[in-house]
């Protein structure tokens, strides 16, 4: 049986007359008769009893009639879902995430995408930079987010935004009295660095900035993620140079101050994906990322964004 034969059968079963069924199907009666007969031969059973007034269903026909509407509905549903998938409206998106990016930017991007494509299932994978690159090549994720990504021929890396840096300090630290901190003022202070991973990241950027500005680097702890780093700051183990979004952690006992540096002003957040990936879902997601990036850049460039907030009288 094919879908066309099932539609022919259903129409004839409903009309109980070859002429009316043929008219409803916009076809001649002889081809309809041949298709119904071919279906009966294939099934090895008569589906209709022919009478002078039309046709009635046999027991085999009645049994088939109870199934055909469901089969046709399933076929239509499959067709519609296939069309939605081809348009990136349904399917699955596996996203590689990491540390501080999860605190602000990435959730906002995912929320925008989910609002536009609610039928797409988003699956998150907490992976380091090297793990994300490997997972992309092994097709375990479709897109990743990270910082300071090395160039790779088979991957596209697009900057989402550039984020300013801050210094996380224990609340009782004398430097909390200052509104802005310079690298020189952090010289010989116990530093908590992250991430301590093989591929260069923020930790290496911080060390390079200290060296360039002739400040003494005193590493107290090296940890894998921002949450551990800020938790150690709260415990009084030292200070930490981190991204502005990390301030959303709001751990008790931690104060954040903007960092002023000639060499360490901003750090980019990028998304990365396979260059040859033609997935409609990925294309739709990348479009959302680009729109978010443009909107964020426009907000940052707005004169209103640069004006200090007015104090209440």
Break the fold down into its secondary structure elements and pairings.
Layout (H helix, E strand, L loop, with lengths): L2 H13 L2 H7 L4 H15 L4 E3 L4 E3 L1 H7 L2 H19 L4 E7 L7 H12 L3 E7 L2 H9 L5 E4 L8 E16 L10 E2 L7 E4 L8 H11 L5 E5 L3 H9 L5 E4 L10 E7 L5 E9 L5 H22 L1 H4 L7
Parallel strand pairs: 3-4, 3-5, 7-11, 8-9
Antiparallel strand pairs: 1-2, 5-12, 6-10, 6-11, 6-12
Helix pairs in contact: 1-2, 1-5
Structure in words:
With 313 residues, the chain is an alpha/beta fold. 41% of the residues lie in helices and 23% in strands. The protein contains eleven helices and twelve strands. It has helices at 3-15, 18-24, 29-43, 59-65, 68-86, 105-116, 129-137, 202-212, 226-234, 280-301, 303-306, and strands at 48-50, 55-57, 91-97, 120-126, 143-146, 155-170, 181-182, 190-193, 218-222, 240-243, 254-260, 266-274. Strands 3, 4, 5, 6, 7, 10, 11 and 12 form an eight-stranded mixed sheet that branches. Strands 1-2 form a two-stranded antiparallel ribbon. Strand 8 (190-193), helix 8 (202-212) and strand 9 form a beta-alpha-beta unit. Helix 1 (3-15) crosses helix 5. The longest helix is centred in the C-terminal third of the chain and has 22 residues, at 280-301. It is rod-shaped and about 105 Å long. The relative contact order is 0.13. The model is unreliable at 307-313 (pLDDT under 50).
């Amino acid at each position: 049986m094919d879908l066309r034969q099932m539609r022919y059968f259903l129409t004839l079963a409903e009309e109980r007359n070859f002429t009316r069924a043929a008219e409803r199907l916009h076809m001649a009666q002889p081809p309809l008769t041949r298709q119904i007969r071919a279906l009966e031969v294939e099934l090895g059973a008569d589906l209709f009893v022919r009478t002078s007034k039309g046709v009635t269903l046999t027991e085999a026909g009645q049994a088939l009639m109870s199934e055909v509407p469901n089969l046709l509905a399933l076929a239509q549903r499959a067709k519609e879902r296939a069309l939605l998938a081809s348009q990136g409206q349904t399917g699955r998106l596996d996203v590689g995430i990491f540390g501080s990016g999860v605190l602000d930017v990435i959730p906002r991007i995912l929320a925008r995408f989910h609002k536009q494509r609610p039928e797409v299932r988003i699956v998150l994978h907490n992976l380091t930079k090297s793990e994300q690159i490997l997972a992309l090549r092994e097709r375990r994720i479709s897109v990743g987010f990270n910082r300071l990504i090395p160039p790779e021929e088979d991957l596209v890396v697009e900057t989402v935004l550039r984020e300013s840096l801050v210094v996380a300090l224990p609340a009782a630290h004398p430097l909390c009295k200052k509104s802005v901190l310079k690298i020189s003022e952090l010289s010989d202070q116990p530093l908590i660095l992250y991430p301590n991973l093989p591929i260069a990241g923020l930790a290496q950027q911080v060390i390079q900035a200290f060296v360039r500005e002739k400040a003494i680097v005193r590493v107290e702890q090296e940890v894998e993620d921002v949450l551990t780093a800020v938790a150690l700051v709260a415990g009084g183990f030292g200070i930490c140079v981190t991204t502005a979004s990390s301030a959303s952690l709001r751990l008790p006992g931690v104060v954040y101050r903007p960092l002023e540096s000639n060499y360490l002003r901003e750090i980019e957040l990028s998304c990365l994906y396979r260059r040859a990936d033609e997935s409609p879902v990925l294309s739709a997601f990348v479009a959302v990322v680009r729109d978010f990036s443009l909107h964020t850049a426009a907000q940052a460039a707005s004169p209103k964004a640069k004006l200090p907030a007015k104090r209440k009288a």
